[in-house]
Amino acid sequence: MVLADGGEGLAKSSRTNSSVVRTFSIQREVSILNRDFLVREMYGTEDLSVQTRLDRPGFFQMTVEPDINPDQERCGHEQKYRTSDGVDYLVDPRGWATDQWTIKGGEILGQDYHWKRKSLGLAGPIKDELGRHVAQFHAQTWGQEWVTMLWHSKAPHATTYIIETNDDIPIEYLVGLFTVAIVRMDKCGR
Fold first, then answer.
1. Which of 158, 115, 126 is nearest to 140 (CA)?
2. What's the whole-model pTM score?
3. Mean predicted lDDT score pLDDT of the chain
4. In the sheet that 56-59 helps form, which strands lie side by side, from edge to edge?
């Protein structure tokens, strides 16, 4: 799998003062609702799991309210998701324009972060309040980003989602944001 920029252009981490870029892949797993994801560090040892439970969809070692449930999505309207530890994900959908997502960090992250999701697909940079590029999302269906821009697949293993990060934002919050956006796109489309 070839990434467009290979993590180049990410700012040095303000948390660790390191220029190391960590890369994680996310794959949709086979499950009853097709809303389970396996997250692996591509050149490391860290693994995370996002699992849908029938009694509480969207559980990923911290819960998100409202549950990550396509039936509760209000397509075309602003919506807020809150993790159990108080970090908010806000989405401002803009139709065919670039959606704006915000991670409201509060006391946990110390600042807010912004993701301008490309109008087609699920790629785009995540920047801090100073405009520093701290993470990047990519999505490739059958190994191609252009396919993902034309067609959103819910099929397990069809699309590989990639997170590149300088570790300014803990990976669980980036995974949370990305999986909320993926499940939201399952219902709302572009």
1. 158
2. 0.80
3. 78
4. 56-59, 47-53, 37-41, 22-28, 159-165, 133-141, 124-128, 113-117, 99-104, 88-92, 79-83, 64-65
- Binned at pLDDT 50, 70 and 90, residue 153 comes out as confident
Higher pLDDT, 181 or 46: 181
Whether the Cβ atoms of residue 166 and residue 54 lie closer than 8 Å to each other: no
Strands (E), 7-152: 22-28, 37-41, 47-53, 56-59, 64-65, 79-83, 88-92, 99-104, 113-117, 124-128, 133-141
What are the phi and psi torsion angles at 109 (to 5°)? Answer: -100, -15
Whether the bond between 66 and the residue before it is cis, its omega within 30 degrees of 0, is yes
| Amino acid at site 125 | P
The C-alpha atoms of residue 28 and residue 19 are separated, in whole angstroms, by 29
pLDDT band at 54 (very low <50, low <70, confident <90, very high): very low
In angstroms, the first-to-last Cα distance of the chain is: 24
Q: How far is CA 121 from CA 79, 181, 186, in A?
A: 19, 10, 11
Q: Decide if pLDDT at 39 tops 90.
A: no
